[in-house]
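Weekly structure sync, notes
Attendees: PL (lead), two postdocs, one rotation student
Agenda item 3: pending single-chain targets
PL asked that the sequence for the first pending target be pasted directly into the notes so everyone works from the same version. It is reproduced below exactly as submitted, 52 residues in total.
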Amino acid sequence: MPQMAPITWLSLFIAFSLILLIFNCVNYYSFKPQSPTTSSMSISQTPLNWKW
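Predicted structure, written out during the meeting:
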């Protein structure tokens, strides 16, 4: 079985690293979160009575 030259391993590492970076950037910027509305911003607060 022939061995690969170190420059070939380096080029494979660079190619896969670039593919990984591009894939992560595309996934990060393709996600669009929903903007919070004023109706969902209201938080109901109930008083807490601590009985120690």
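Discussion points:
- The chain has a mean pLDDT of 82.
- Helices lie at 6-30, 38-41.
Action: rotation student to compare against the earlier draft before next sync.
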